[in-house]
Design goal:
Layout lengths: L2 H28 L6 H19 L2 H9 L5 H19 L2 H24 L2 H23 L4 H6 L8 H23 L13 H14 L9 E3 L5 E4 L2 E6 L6 H20 L15 H15 L3 H15 L7 H8 L13 H20 L7 H13 L25 H20 L3 H6 L4 H10 L9 H9 L6 H14 L3
Parallel strand pairs: 1-3
Antiparallel strand pairs: 2-3
Helix pairs in contact: 1-2, 1-3, 2-5, 5-6, 8-14, 8-20, 9-10, 10-11, 11-16, 12-13, 14-15, 14-16, 16-19, 16-20
């Protein structure tokens, strides 16, 4: 075997162990009994110790020095292995293990504090998570910006300053659009109760409609919807509310976007560094274009309206046009995952600024709740009413995902660019969506983006697919056009 062959065989085992760790995380969110959390923390720490040792093993460096890539795909494999090796080598093994244990335990404490509306109960463990992540960030940054090092885990080759520049360009137009829309009368919403078993049945139908392969996946319920896995085992979760079936349906479509990306990657890349989505921003571009530009379009909501009537009977909405308006209602609310397209990115900007300040040491954990509440009041015009609607609503910080939040809005930006290209490439898309046929859209995305996995760098894969460098203009034009028509601006 050549050095490259030996490295790839070793890497395949490492990737397989990483999938096992991911399955433990899926189980913790869906099936694990609450009392198992302390033991699960030890299990996660143990497997992270093994993974870190493999990723930072000096023999990986030796193989990288000797490996001669036989083709362009092999060159990309080596690029990703080298990047992971260099990052893992900078983080002490004991620190990686401790972070895995503490964040696993912190997740359970966050869930309990959220249920109890008790910020004080969560702050001590969050303080420890922040301290550990700052330490990790400092090791990775090697004298550079700690937050940039955090972002690199989720959106390679992007800095906090570059993200801030995009957000600063977006904010004025989003604020103006929000104000204009909220000054208009709201459309009539749904009425009645919606059986949760029927919601899950329709959500599984939606998953299949958007191309989710149920023979290699499953749909479960969780407090916080997510997608997990890659290759031949990609699982999603959703949630239900008797009063709000849209939460279930659009969470499902969103997570199917993530899952379809993973399921569509070239199987030659299975259990290799190229066999995963290239970044969380690109991942979000898929979940958001599935959920919004496709799933909330007038054409597709017309089809969904009929499915809703079949499942629930009459629910207070007169026709397909009124249903489209109800799906796209812009309304005040606290919860990021329930936010409409106009306001969603404002929720992300709030989190981006706060976590960047936490990593820089400019904001202390003890002051987080007050800082959140002050910023929310300034951005949205009303006060946070309870912690589960404020700084306790998201799981991300409890599990150490600092640098993750901005990728949600980067995904929206990327989706705006992709939507322009998709509409040009599939001119009869709306006619297809009216019939509940998403294959024109999902097939184009699969061919032009999803199948490549991590073959190309994040911004490169977006530019190759869309024909333009990532920019906020397409997203803003889409939002202004859509909601100006909906609200007669």
């Amino acid at each position: 075997m050549t050095a490259y062959d030996e490295l790839m065989a070793y890497q395949r085992e490492t990737q397989a162990l990483g999938e096992i760790a991911g399955r433990l995380g899926w189980d913790q969110e869906t099936m694990m009994p609450r009392g198992a959390a302390p033991q699960r923390g030890e299990e996660m720490a143990a497997i992270e110790a093994v993974l870190h040792a493999r990723r930072s093993d000096p023999k990986v460096g030796d193989w990288l020095a000797k490996a001669e890539p036989p083709c362009d795909v092999s060159t990309a494999q080596l690029r990703e292995i080298r990047r992971a090796f260099e990052r893992a080598s900078k983080v002490p093994a004991d620190l990686a293990k401790t972070i895995a244990r503490v964040t696993s335990e912190a997740q359970g404490k966050w869930a309990q504090a959220r249920a109890d509306e008790d910020v004080a109960a969560f702050l001590p463990v969050l303080e420890e998570v922040v301290r550990l992540k700052r330490e990790e960030g400092a090791a990775l940054a090697n004298g550079g910006d700690v937050y940039d090092a955090m972002v690199e885990d989720y959106e390679p080759y992007t800095t906090g300053a570059e993200i801030a520049a995009i957000f600063d360009a977006m904010r004025p137009r989003l604020v103006a659009l929000r104000a204009a829309v909220l000054d208009k009368p709201k459309p009539h919403g749904l009425s009645g109760q919606f059986d949760e078993t029927s919601q899950m049945k329709l959500s599984r139908q939606l998953a299949r409609t958007f191309g989710y392969d149920m023979s290699h996946g499953r749909v479960d319920k969780a407090v916080h919807p997510f997608s997990s896995g890659s290759g031949l085992d990609v699982r999603i979760t959703t949630r239900t509310s008797p009063e709000d079936p849209f939460n279930c349906f659009y969470s499902t479509i969103h997570e199917v976007g993530h899952a379809a990306y993973e399921q569509s990657i070239d199987k030659d890349y299975l259990l290799t560094p190229l066999g995963r989505g290239v970044s969380m921003g690109v991942h979000e571009s898929q979940s958001r274009i599935y959920e919004n530009q496709i799933g909330r379009s007038r054409a597709f909501t017309g089809w969904l309206f009929d499915r809703m009537k079949e499942s629930f009977g009459e629910f207070g909405v007169a026709d397909a046009d009124a249903f489209y308006a109800a799906v796209n209602t812009v309304h005040n609310g606290y919860i990021r995952t329930e936010a409409d397209e106009v306001q969603y990115n404002l929720h992300i900007m709030l989190r981006f600024d706060l976590e960047r300040a936490l990593m820089a040491g400019d904001l202390q954990v003890a002051d987080l709740e007050a800082a959140w509440n002050d910023r929310f009041k300034a951005d949205f015009g009303y006060a946070v009413d309870k912690p589960s609607n404020g700084c306790l609503q998201d799981v991300h910080w409890s599990v150490g995902l600092f640098g993750y939040f901005p990728t949600y809005s980067l995904g929206n930006v990327y989706a705006g660019c992709l939507n322009d290209a998709l509409r040009a490439a599939v001119p009869d898309l709306d006619a297809q969506l009216t019939e509940g046929d998403t294959s024109g859209a999902t097939g184009w995305l699969r061919e032009n983006l999803q199948r490549h996995g991590s073959l190309y760098a994040p911004r490169d894969v977006i530019e190759r697919a869309s024909g333009q460098a990532p920019n906020e203009a397409s997203l803003l034009s889409y939002l202004e056009s859509k909601f100006s028509a909906l609200y007669d601006l």
